[in-house]
Amino acid sequence: MYLSKSRYCEGVQCEKILWLNENKPNTSDDNGSEAILETGRKVGELAKGLFGDYTDVDYDTDINVRIEKTHNLLKDSPNVIAEASFAFNNNFCSVDILKNDADGVEIYEVKSSTEIRDIYLDDVAYQYFVLTSAGLKVKKAAIVYINNEYVRGSELDMAQLFNIGDVTDIVLEKQDEITSNISRFSDLGQSEPDIDIGPHCFDPYPCSYWQHCTQDLPTPNVFDIAVMQRRSKFKKYYEGKISFEDLENEDLNPKYLEQIDFELHDREPKIIKSAIDDVLNSLNYPLYFIDYETCQHAIPEIEGTKPYQQIPFQYSLHIIEKEGSPLKHKEFLASSDDENIIETFARNMIGDMPEDGSVIVYNKAFEATRNKEIAEMYPEFREDMDRFNDNMVDLMVPFRERNYYTRQMEGSYSIKKVLPALFPDDPELDYNELSLIHKGDEASNAFLSLKDKTPEEQKPIRKALLDYCRLDTLAMVKIWEKFRQVTDDVQ
Fold first, then answer.
1. Could you tell me if 333 and 429 lie in one domain?
2. Using an 8 Å Cβ cutoff, are 182 and 3 in contact?
3. pLDDT for 71-126, tens place per residue?
4. What percent of the chain has pLDDT over 90?
5. How many domains does one find in the chain?
6. Which of 227, 289, 300, 461 could be disulfide-bonded to 305 (CB atoms 3.0-4.6 Å)?
7. Is residue 317 in a domain?
8. What is the domain range of residue 10?
9. Residues 6+ positions from 222 with CB-CB distance below 8 Å
10. Which of 22, 13, 29, 7 minimizes the C-alpha distance to 209?
């Protein structure tokens, strides 16, 4: 079997992935890797200049052309080659950064992660195998990764942004393992490998063939239990306790058993009036229903931010000024070229919530943490950020604590599950009816994509962002109204 470094790493995770990619790729349900790949590409491009001037081997050309160009560049040592390409038998790799010295070469594998993971060691060890088998002397093997403690100044400091981990000794220890794995991968037969599901389906990466490999399991099954730790699910799976019927009388967390019970016996909704009243009684007008959308940059673009820091770029705000007042809506969506997005976001939010009312959110930890970060970056906003956090009320709590629960929530307290459970026939509250953007990661990726688009191309995306975020806060208003309704009904 022909192997690249990515295919080798797939085989390390599970040989069935290799076989399915070759024989049944249409059974893959991969639907979220584009943004991750784009982040990796951007980090990789920046890192190419880590050691100064370099020569790039064009990744889009034929493999043989790339190998030949690399061979010619190696003659010009010392130099730095990006995407240097090599082959040995049916094994191929491109090295992100190759330092080519008179007495040998150094391999630098670039990752957009903030730590060195075991699979990265497999990646570099495979490259070492290919290069040394092709006759090169490899002096050093290293992994370049993101320093998440780096705080950007006015200019980007690459030496501070990247950490470099020397993994040469580990790579050398793995060479027998590499040889054994390559031999085993080359012997994959015509039939799908008989490999059962297990923790390897999610480690080091979620496998895109999960649906294919679990298609014969009963529905619902142990893997549908919300919040339950994965290792606990696999423990029950290996014990043969897979269906909800199998699990009904097991010694499990009461919340897991409650989900199973509601599913099997179609129980009536559970509503603990006192817990919901506690939420309602904690509210003070004006009511500010607010939701933030954020994005992350592996390479920090804003002075004072760290890699992968959550950057708030949008909010939706529904306001009820006093009992019986009409619902008002305000919103903010940053310009994609605003170099002070966080400051602009905060100023607009403070202007839109001037009074000392309840700040109502869904999942308090997220918005509260963003407010603390804003206060740290901009001390002039601290008083208002503290005010928001002191007045914050989390509508998620009754659902998380199972004080309000229905079968349709399927054990989850995510608003994406709660809303259709409470309002099953309202198209206005259906995220599936939205165009382009239906969940948070799509919103983040959409905003990040705006920089590369013309104003005309941005229009439908910006509208979709506004529509999506607006639904999040409208959903909270509807949940608040439902709380008032059900507590009145229970009385």
1. yes
2. yes
3. 999 999 999 999 999 999 999 999 999 999 999 999 999 999 999 999 999 999 99
4. 94
5. 3
6. 300
7. yes
8. 5-186
9. 228, 233, 236, 237, 241, 242, 243, 246, 247
10. 29
